[in-house]
Each structure stands twice: as C-alpha cells, then as structure tokens.
Design brief:
By secondary structure, this protein is mainly α. The protein contains 7 helices and no strands. The radius of gyration is 15 Å and the shape is globular. The chain binds protoporphyrin IX containing NI(II) (HNI). Protoporphyrin IX containing NI(II) binds next to α4, α5, α6 and α7. Belongs to the globin family.
Amino acid sequence: MVKWTDLERSTVRAVWEKVDIDEIGPQIWARVLIVYPWTERYFGSFGDIFTTTAILNNTKVAAHGKVVLEALDKAVKNMDNMKRMYAALSLLHFQKLEVDPDNFRLLADCITIAIACKLKSALTPQVQATWQKFLAAVVEAMSSQYY
Ligand code: HNI
C-alpha cells in the first residue's frame, strides 16, 4: 500500500480543490483522443471523433471526461483505500472494455498537463512530484485486476 505523509495528503487535496471537473474533464478526454489517436478504438459508440474539431465538439467526449474525473475525486477522498475502491472499475476496464492498461499512464499525463495549464506556477516541482505520486497510485489501482 502506498504511504502518504500529511503534507502529501494536503498537497493532493489543494491541487484537487482547484480542479473544476466540468471545465477540466472535457479538456482531458479531448487531449487523450487527440494526442493518442489509437484510443479512439475504445469509443465506437461516441460517433464522430475522427478530427480534432469533431473531438472538441463531441458532447459524449466531454461527458466521459467528467465521469472519469468524478472517479478520480473518489481516489482523492480514499487515498488509503484506492485498490479496493477501484477493484470493480479495474475489472470492468480489463474484462469488458478491454482497455490496454498502458493507456492509464497516458491519461495520467494528460491530467497533469491539463492541471499544469490551469495552475501555472502554483504547480511547483514539489507539488508536481506529489501529484504524480498520487496519479501513479491511481494507475496502479486501476491496473490491479489485470493479469
Ligand atoms: Ni475509463 C468507462 C473511470 C481510464 C476507456 N471509465 C469508465 C467509467 C468510469 C471510468 C468511472 C464508467 C463506468 C461505468 O459506466 O460503470 N477510466 C476511469 C478511470 C480511469 C480510466 C478512473 C483511469 C484513471 N478508461 C480509461 C482509459 C480508457 C478508458 C485510459 C481508454 C483509453 N472507460 C473507457 C471506456 C469506457 C469507460 C471505453 C466506457 C465508455 C462508454 O460510455 O461506453
């Protein structure tokens, strides 16, 4: 289990408080699809996501970004219990959605970049290090049911 200091806990919470899910969620999922176009293959039901403009205007992409960030909100609130909390979601991504877990890491990078664009100089190297430790724990928990 990942151990957290009090400073790390308060840093993660402080970063997360600045994230507006309705604003950042859509940006993150659009970024994933634009930067890593092979991820389109998982979203056959989303309609037209074949150009940058289409992705940025697709309401299903925007909604999905919010769903994923709402799941991340649960991780912020359950930092000591992430593996158990994400067990069913990990299994869903493995067995039903068949998402390659390498994509979790790519998503984590997009999350950090979107947050960096928002926080600017407030995302100091120390804050970023803690934030990335948090996202690494999320990625590990989301990968935990894969074999
Ligand atoms: Ni993910 C559905 C959370 C990474 C592809 N995903 C969900 C749902 C949640 C969720 C919550 C809704 C589940 C439900 O309806 O029961 N996804 C997360 C989290 C991460 C993540 C917390 C990583 C931190 N998902 C990814 C990645 C991909 C992905 C990296 C592919 C690139 N997810 C999907 C797909 C669905 C999905 C596909 C189903 C979408 C739909 O609406 O059909």
